[in-house]
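Sequence dictates fold. Below is an illustrative record:

_____
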Amino acid sequence: MKAMVYRGPYKVRVEEKDIPAIEHPNDAIVRVTRAAICGSDLHLYHGMMPDTRVGTTFGHEFIGVVHEVGPSVESLKAGDRVMVPFNVYCGSCWFCSRGLYSNCHNVNPNATAIGGIYGYSHTCGGYDGGQAEFVRVPFADVGPSTIPDWLDDDDALLMTDALATGYFGAQLGEIAEGDTVVVFGAGPVGLFAARSSWLMGAGRVIVVDHLDYRLEKAREFAFAETLDFAEHDDVVVALKKATDHLGADVAIDAVGAEADGSLAQHITAAKLKLQGGSPVALNWAIDSVRKGGNVSVMGAYGPMFSAVKFGDAFNKGLTLRMNQCPVKRQWPRLLEHIRHGYLKPSEIITHRIPLDDIAEAYHLFSAKLDGCIKPVIIPNAA
């Protein structure tokens, strides 16, 4: 089969790999029909995440058709159209039984914090991802779900991470009716977090970014006010002025490890790898939210030290909540929102690119060319 293969920072290509085999009775092999490149894939592409090994296939957002199932699989059969959450999880451990699928205790021998994630380095279990023609899906009776007949493939694809994560980010903010919400980052997760904030009762939503085409999408898709941080000497002061000098009620960091806005932070994090990520957006969130407010962190960071303003958060009495999204927990409500017309996730897709052109797709997305917000990869599996 054809698969995207990592060859080092900024180096990916398509190679021939063996079609994955059933390794456990509860495995399924899925023929991928849609995959996506996520903003957090760029952290791998740029060499930001530890233990990203040469030969790995990325891709934690994918849907497909079941090609083969192991002898213990009961809920799926060959030919089923399925969406697969980015979490690999067992469904039965202490954490899974409490809905913390992203913290499963049985799927990742390399960490005590995170569970398993498809295509996201060996710090997340070392599972190959879905930017390929076929992918092995462990615990097939637990993770994947059949896609309802009425749900479009592109909308189903975005439920496997970006939409679910953005929605989860708004949930973690514990938005109360009428709250002012500031979202840092107008990428896919930020756009979905902003749009979801309205569904949770927000009275005002402000999206912060510095790219015109992403800010325009925030206004068009998320119905949000926008603030270009490049136009202000101090984005925190600008946000305070915009919120009666009190600050927002809720701030959502949807940027993570490669936030722009501070040259020193960018160099120590992205270039010298001295931090687990540039915490610019997170520090802006801490400083711009009101005292007693809530900060939700959806942007991905590495496990290393990051220079976060924890003292400010403590002295302001903030509540900080964060995690990798337990995707499947969000699906029932998201399906209802989509079915009733409150959301059309595929509206953020800007590019559809063949798997053969995966290197160009990563460059396009990484360099923010051609107004690229969400690229979808189309494999050509037989």
Notes: The domain at 2-161+326-378 is CATH 3.90.180.10 (Quinone Oxidoreductase; Chain A, domain 1). The two ends are 9 Å apart (CA to CA).
